[in-house]
Amino acid sequence: MRIVIPGGTGQVGGILRRRYAAAGHDVVVLSRQPETLEAGVRHRVWDGRSLGDWAEELDGADVVVNLAGRSVSCRYTDEHLRQMMASRVDSTRVVGRALELAARPPAVWLQMSTATIYADRRDGPDDAPNDEATGIIGGQEPHVPAYWELSVRIAQQWEAAQQEATLPRTRRVALRTAMVMSPDRGGVFDYLLWMARLGLGGAVAGGGQYVSWIHADDLCRAIDLLAERSDLEGPVNLAAPGPLPQRELMRDLRRAWGRRPGLPATRAMAGLGAWVLRTDTELLLKSRRVVPGRLLEAGFEFEHPTWPGAAADLVAGVRERRGRTGRAPSYR
User: Fold this and answer.
1) In this structure, is residue 111 part of a structural domain?
2) Residue 331, domain member (yes or no)
3) Is 313 helix (H, G, I), strand (E, B) or coil?
């Protein structure tokens, strides 16, 4: 198959393109700067906003997986939020325009989205996990900072942009993705393990906020299923069925690494740490309690459904990589 991955140079793009190339597929990555990628992966330059000769790669392709968008790991300044919105919406719209012009458009367009679109839900009497059928879109919760609504608005407009194109022959799926956990350098697991190894991986602001996650292996398998199943379209949650409070997630990670202590952090301390790391406390404090209703209904079986087992597998992967390369992870 020919698989085109706009924005395929980030963490998730790296996971997918290596997997597809190893399986012998024709993989094409679109990004803003020239890149030298793995054997079997071709690269085309685009600006993520306007049509160009890159669009010819979509004509006759089998699958498009659009991952383009500015990283959310940053301070939520007005400029950064504007960049987050523009990079997601503009790139999605131009992919849609290119598909409209294709003589042989792909059968399926898998579009990255985010589990952040849902409301902050915890263990309260009126709370429940967010699935695709009964989940509540966020932005109106009275108990969270008002500016968190901006992330929800970005997610909503991101998904809306995928629906603007007229594509009668292309099925569209919005991938509402939780935190993707892989043993690769520079990803979210890399950062969490760094905290655990330093003894900083305790409860943050009490640790009651839920973390939704998915193991990279299950992410790839779920995307394979969504590419193949012609009856699945619209929003799909890519998250393991076992979201858990942040304090438990870090406790299980410390145990997997070797029972390190975990110093707790107050909300104020989390704010200071986020400022030092040039990120935003929403990524630490919002309760993302998301479950994969549609995947489970489709018969998908997770290889890593619970966090303790997934954490042990990921730690083993990090140790294997360190032994292979002789280098420690690149913790930020």
Assistant:
1) yes
2) no
3) helix
- Which tens digit of pLDDT belongs to each residue from 70-93? 999 899 999 999 999 999 999 999
Domain CATH for 304: 3.40.50.720
* Nearest CA among 238, 64, 236, 92 for reference residue 160: 92
How far apart CA 65 and CA 175 sit, in angstroms, is 10
Task: Examine residue 251 and state whether it is found in any structural domain, yes or no.
Answer: yes
Helices (H) and strands (E) in the chain, counts: 10, 11
User: Helices in the chain by DSSP H: which ranges?
Assistant: 11-22, 78-101, 149-162, 188-197, 216-228, 246-257, 267-276, 282-285, 293-297, 307-325
- Cβ contacts of residue 325 below 8 Å, gap of 6+? none
- Decide: residue 18, CB within 10 A, 0-12 exposed, 13-18 middle, 19+ buried: middle
Q: How many structural domains is the chain composed of?
A: 1
- The residue behind tokens 């890593």 is 304
Collect the ranges in the chain with pLDDT lower than 50.
328-332
Residue 294 sits in which domain range?
A: 2-325
Q: How high is the pLDDT of residue 330?
A: 40
**In this predicted structure, what is the pLDDT of residue 329?**
42
Nearest CA among 103, 7, 110 for reference residue 59: 103
Evaluate whether residue 81 is within a structural domain: yes
Strand partners, 176: 113, 237
